[in-house]
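Record copied across here:
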Amino acid sequence: MNQPDTKTISLRKPVTLKGDSVTTSSLDLREPTVDELDRASQAGETGYASNAALISFVAGVPLQVARALGKRDYEEAVKYLTGFTLDGQTTGEA
């Protein structure tokens, strides 16, 4: 686990939620807390749902923004966040 403390991802496809005038063009990520990992593991029944919740918690963006990320942006965020876990898994028990 040799991750930088923070990472900013410039989104390839900025996200604007329907009916919202704010566009999210980047995500500022940091090391997740144990509480955030635990809450994310309980947030959904799929890996995508759990990872979207973790991105939302860590980046401080609405869950709908995390769920609307393009696949490449999502994968970049997940790769960074899973780098903090021993086995690369963001959900469940170690």
Summary: Residues 1-10+32-94 form one domain.
